[in-house]
Specification:
This protein is of the alpha/beta class. It has four domains: about 200 residues, Rossmann fold, CATH 3.40.50.300; about 160 residues, P-loop containing nucleotide triphosphate hydrolases (Rossmann fold, 3-Layer(aba) Sandwich); about 60 residues, no CATH class; about 80 residues, 2-Layer Sandwich (Alpha-Beta Plaits), CATH 3.30.70. Helices cover about 40% and strands about 15% of the residues. The strands form four sheets. It has a seven-stranded parallel β-sheet with strand order 3-4-2-5-6-1-7, sandwiched between helices. Helix 6 packs across helix 8. The longest helix is centred in the C-terminal third of the chain and has 21 residues. It is globular, with a radius of gyration of 29 Å. It starts with 17 loop residues before the first helix and ends in a 34-residue tail after the last strand.
């Protein structure tokens, strides 16, 4: 019996036609990724596919290559439809298809997305684009106008289906499924597998083969080193400046929570001399494409982005991802850090966490299956050493381009100025912008104080069960209307309801154990226009929410405890 491990499959072993293999060879593709090795033969065999795969695993090629293998270039009609949640991802997929189809003469692909004029899209559809890559909103616009034909569609792909459902495109997807021919082959890819995705697969796919690329950990993140810097909110900008001075950053994406924050931070970085720009949903499509293009060409080194704007962004230069603000959930974190470490390259993901946010780290570690390394803030000596090293590199690079003319100029300067060589070098450094920072004093950033452990607890939530309610701050959901509904329709007393914690898209509330009959009564009741979806939401194993401390008595301006006001005299 041989102990030799079977050889890894090659693209040539997967059944792809010669023009595609030649294209892959010219692009430098050698060995298929795990998702490609499983998905390509399945799709070439005509089977439906349900793929659970994180971003960065190579799933674009996994569905694009078998799709292209089935395209009849001589037929000027749309034969494949790919749906993506964002414009950026649609453009990325369309560009990938063009690269893979470089040897398919006459092939055409069209990206349909909002924010771009309809007229060119009408013309391209009329000419007969072989593959259409679209966002659901813009596709349904074309469906209403009758400008896209479904008669010849043989292949339908849903990329990042979980995101499309999360963004509210469920009805649009249903409309597409109704329009495509019954015999259409379908492939659905998702980073997670919530109930909504399962329902779509069950209702619209024919016994799909299921491929799970990971279980609890993402192989796409194996090339990414994760670090956390504990830093107070008001020191984040200084900490980021230190990071850029000590880390070997080629290009970086910085994630913030809001559009306003992306603009403010990019402006402050520009003021400090960094080549930075904002990327958010308020920018026109043209401006967003310009930012990405400048990043690719090396004209920008830092892009400050929101989650939506950066989804699907794939730029090889990105060596670092910085979570300037903590993401709202672990899925967003995985998508964020997946912007680096692409195509087998190594990458670094850094997270700024305040002491209050420290307890959330284990949830992110669980989502990635990897340890997030705790790293101390760079010292003043480390910053100065980093500055010196970068200046030395610049000087060495410049020295390679000098010649006899430069040396002659130095000799002339020595004669004219009557300086010693060391004096002349020091004077030249003094007028060199990059050297000035070495003279400036560097102070150590204050370490964020550790979070004080609570000694006295509040047992208000004792014996209660944590429930998750659909809707949060983004829906203007407030605790009072929620409590009113729970009392009126759930039969609860106000005294039975524990703490309520609001998040962006959902709300956590502590309640007594509810019977299924009570949950049925609550189902569908509207709170602020949002249908009340409520389910148990137990804490992860080993996690315990800290009890709340009773607040100390408030003090007046003189520093004395407030006393109750005397009753007014009648």
């Amino acid at each position: 019996m041989s102990d030799t491990a079977p050889a890894a499959p090659q693209f040539a072993d997967l059944g792809l036609p010669a023009p595609l293999l030649e294209a892959l060879n010219s692009l430098g593709y050698e060995t298929p990724s795990p998702i490609q090795a499983e998905a390509i033969p399945t799709l070439l065999a005509g089977e439906d596919l349900l793929g659970l795969a994180q971003t960065g695993t190579g799933k674009t090629a996994a569905f694009s290559l078998p799709l292209l293998a089935g395209i009849d270039v001589s037929l000027r009609a749309t034969q494949a439809l790919i749906l993506t949640p964002t414009r950026e991802l649609a453009l990325q997929v369309a560009e990938a298809l063009q690269r893979y189809a470089q040897n398919m003469r006459g092939f055409s692909v069209l990206a349909l997305y909002g924010g771009s004029p309809f007229a060119p899209q009408f013309k391209a559809l009329e000419r007969g684009a072989h593959v259409v890559v679209a966002t659901p909103g813009r596709l349904t616009d074309h469906m209403r106008r009758g400008s896209i034909k479904f008669d010849n569609i043989r292949f339908l792909v849903l990329d990042e289906a979980d995101e499309m459902l999360k963004m509210g495109f469920a009805d649009d997807l249903e409309a597409v499924f109704e329009k495509v021919p019954e015999h259409t082959q379908k492939a659905l890819f998702s980073a997670t597998m919530p109930a909504g995705v399962r329902t779509v697969a069950r209702n619209h796919m024919r016994e799909p083969k299921e491929i799970r690329l990971h279980s609890g950990k993402s192989s796409s993140l194996d090339t990414i080193t994760q670090k956390v810097w504990e830093v107070a909110n008001h020191h984040k900008l200084d900490a980021m400046t230190r990071l850029l001075e000590v880390e070997p950053v080629e290009a970086m994406i910085v994630f913030v929570r809001t559009k306003t924050a992306s603009l403010e931070l990019s402006e402050r970085l520009e003021a400090r001399g960094f080549a930075a720009a904002a990327l958010n949903g308020d920018l026109s499509q043209q401006l967003r494409e310009q930012v990405v293009d400048r990043l690719k060409r090396g004209l920008l080194d830092i892009v400050v982005a929101t989650d939506v704007a950066a989804r699907g962004l794939d730029v090889e230069r990105i060596s670092h991802v910085l979570n300037y603000d903590l993401p709202h959930d672990s899925e967003s974190y995985v998508h964020r850090i997946g912007r680096t470490g692409r195509a087998g390259r190594s990458g670094t993901a850094i997270l700024f966490a305040t002491p209050r946010e420290r307890r959330l780290l284990h949830l992110l570690e669980k989502a990635t299956g990897q340890k997030i390394e705790q790293q101390a803030l760079p010292t003043a000596d480390a910053v100065r050493s980093g500055r010196l090293s970068k200046l030395a590199t610049r000087l060495q690079t410049a020295a390679e381009g000098t010649g006899s003319l430069h040396q002659q100029l130095v000799e002339e300067l020595l004669q004219v100025t009557n300086m010693e060589p060391l004096e002349l070098a020091a004077a030249l450094l003094a007028i060199l912008p990059g050297a000035k920072t070495l003279i400036e004093p560097v102070a150590d950033l204050p370490v964020a104080p550790p979070r004080r452990e609570r000694e006295m607890g509040d047992d208000r939530d004792a014996g209660l069960v944590r429930y998750k309610v659909q809707g949060g701050r983004s829906n203007n959901l407030m605790p009072k209307p929620l409590v009113d509904v729970l009392v009126k329709h759930g039969g609860l007393r106000r005294q039975q309801i524990g703490h309520i914690k609001m998040f962006t898209e959902h709300t956590g509330v502590y309640l007594p154990q509810l019977d299924q009959s009570v949950l049925n009564k609550l189902a569908g009741v509207e709170v602020n226009g949002v249908a009340l979806q409520i389910r148990e939401w137990p804490l992860p194993p080993g996690e315990v929410e800290r009890p709340r401390s009773p607040r100390p008595p408030r003090k007046d301006f003189a520093g004395k405890p407030r006393t109750s006001k005397p009753a007014r005299r009648a």
